[in-house]
């Protein structure tokens, strides 16, 4: 008999992510009614929006029927429909909670959420017991090769079965499952880094060095323009970090470059967004100050797009697609410096050769070092920061490209007075094919700081980059 008039309540358990719920059951002499799963109310209590796609029912005719212990590669929400069960759950995921146990008796007034990789087993305590599963992947008999199993009688977890196993109804398969010492833990879902051989990709390799759950794919491993690259089991991934982009700003103004920019920065990104939304994957995407025209003194995350050229237009289109993904982080950045050819390396080379460059002095912004972008990505994804768009540059006072060039000359022992400042109009007067640039690229950093991440100052990062 279900207990009536409980308030909808969530209870944490010793297993991370496993949550027990009391459910309101409304009944009288005719029977009872309950809202078994109500998305809006459950989300308010902290239940993950896990996206169920299938509802299953298990019926057991006799008390003592015992099933498990099976850990499946999907999340599930389980509730008793009629009767009563004894449930046992064992964490079979990689990590410090491997082997943790939780047990409880459940009747129709209760439900439990079981995340991927946590083994579950049930023993019916009454005849004619049925329980229901909401799962976020489609079950098939062939999927069982992805399960992780544990023997019901394992001495290490020592589950106190109300009905001794020798008196219970068990399948031959369940009797043959391994002991805990022989169980290979279920590996976590992976993070896929696309564009792993670029400047940001190399910084992400360093940031996640040694983490087996992060998979890196350069162009040879994932070519956005190759249809075969998209043939993956996307349900094995929890996060996609898109570090790939077409960044040839001037070439994007040409006929061929325009097509490439839109294919990589917009069409391919829209495809990633669709995959992420369909598979409940968190999509991390890198945006640019070029989505703005530079008219504002400081650009906030919610400023409307106003791109001046093809590159900025294609990036704005990609941002728009990613913003439709329920779980997304867009990191908008500017003046990126990393491992590879870039403005700082060019200025250092000119300084070493005694060249006296002319550098624009009316474009204002801050440098962004890929090390800080990579650290910001990791912080946002691992701290459960609210999804959305975040500006990320290095901190400090905004400066011009000419100021940066002079500082590079100083740090490398050259004369900063060798750098001559010129206007953007003067610099590009002989380059009619050049793309228009925003004159002001200063991005507001308050939102990402409020999320707990404070980047280094640009001056500090520049010194570390040049001097080690």
Give the mean pLDDT.
Answer: 93
Q: What class, by secondary structure content?
A: alpha/beta
Helical content stands at 10-25%
Distance between the termini: 70 Å
Shape, please?
A: elongated
- For the largest beta sheet, what order do the strands appear in spatially? 1-2-10-7-12-5
- Binned strand content: 15-25%
- Per DSSP, the total helix count is 11
What oligomeric state is this? single chain
Tell me about the biggest sheet? Answer: 6 strands, antiparallel
* Uncertain residue segments: none
By DSSP, the count of extended strands is: 25
From the alpha-carbon coordinates, what is the Rg to the nearest angstrom?
A: 28 Å
How would you sum up this structure, described in words?
- By secondary structure, the chain is an alpha/beta fold.
- The protein has a six-stranded antiparallel sheet with strand order 1-2-10-7-12-5, with no helix packed on it.
- The protein is elongated, with a radius of gyration of 28 Å.
């Amino acid at each position: 008999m279900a207990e009536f008039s409980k308030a909808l309540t969530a209870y944490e358990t010793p297993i991370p992510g496993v949550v027990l719920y009391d459910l309101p059951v409304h009944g009288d002499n005719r029977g009872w009614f309950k809202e078994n799963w109500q998305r809006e109310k459950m989300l308010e209590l902290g239940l993950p929006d896990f996206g169920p796609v299938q509802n299953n029912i298990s019926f057991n005719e006799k008390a003592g029927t015992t099933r498990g212990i099976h850990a499946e590669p999907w999340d599930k929400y389980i509730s008793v429909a009629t009767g009563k069960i004894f449930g046992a759950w064992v964490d079979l995921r990689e990590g410090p909670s491997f082997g943790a146990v939780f047990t409880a008796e459940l009747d129709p007034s209760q439900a439990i959420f079981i995340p991927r990789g946590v083994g579950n087993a049930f023993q019916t305590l009454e005849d004619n017991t049925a329980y229901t599963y909401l799962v976020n992947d489609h079950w098939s008999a062939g999927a069982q090769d992805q399960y992780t199993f544990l023997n019901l009688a394992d001495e290490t977890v020592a589950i106190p079965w109300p009905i001794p196993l020798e008196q219970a109804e068990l399948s031959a398969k369940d009797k043959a499952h391994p002991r805990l010492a022989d169980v290979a833990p279920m590996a976590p879902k992976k993070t896929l880094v696309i564009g792993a051989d670029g400047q940001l990709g190399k910084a992400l390799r360093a940031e996640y060095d040694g983490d087996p759950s992060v998979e890196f794919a350069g162009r040879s491993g994932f070519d956005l323009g190759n249809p075969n690259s998209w043939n993956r089991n996307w349900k094995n991934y929890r996060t996609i970090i898109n570090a790939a982009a077409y960044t040839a700003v001037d070439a994007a103004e040409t006929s061929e470059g325009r097509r490439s920019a839109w294919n990589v920065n917009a069409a391919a990104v829209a495809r990633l967004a669709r995959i992420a939304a369909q598979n409940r994957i968190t999509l991390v995407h890198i945006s640019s100050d070029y989505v703005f025209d530079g008219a504002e003194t400081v650009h906030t995350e919610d400023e409307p797009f106003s791109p001046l050229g093809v590159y900025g237009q294609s990036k704005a289109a990609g941002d728009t697609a990613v913003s439709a993904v329920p779980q997304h982080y867009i990191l908008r950045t500017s003046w990126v410096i990393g491992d590879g050819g870039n403005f700082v390396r060019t200025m250092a080379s000119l300084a070493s050769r005694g060249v006296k460059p002319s550098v624009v002095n009316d474009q204002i912004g801050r440098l962004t070092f890929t090390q800080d972008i990579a650290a910001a990505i990791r912080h946002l994804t691992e701290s459960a920061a609210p999804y959305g768009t975040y500006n990320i540059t290095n901190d400090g006072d905004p400066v011009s490209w000419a100021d940066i060039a002079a500082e590079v000359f100083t740090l490398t022992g050259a004369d900063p007075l060798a750098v001559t400042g010129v206007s953007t109009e003067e610099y590009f007067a002989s380059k009619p094919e050049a793309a228009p640039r925003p004159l002001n690229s200063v991005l507001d950093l308050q939102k990402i700081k409020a999320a707990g991440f404070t980047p280094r100052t640009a001056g500090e990062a520049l010194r570390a980059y040049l001097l080690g």
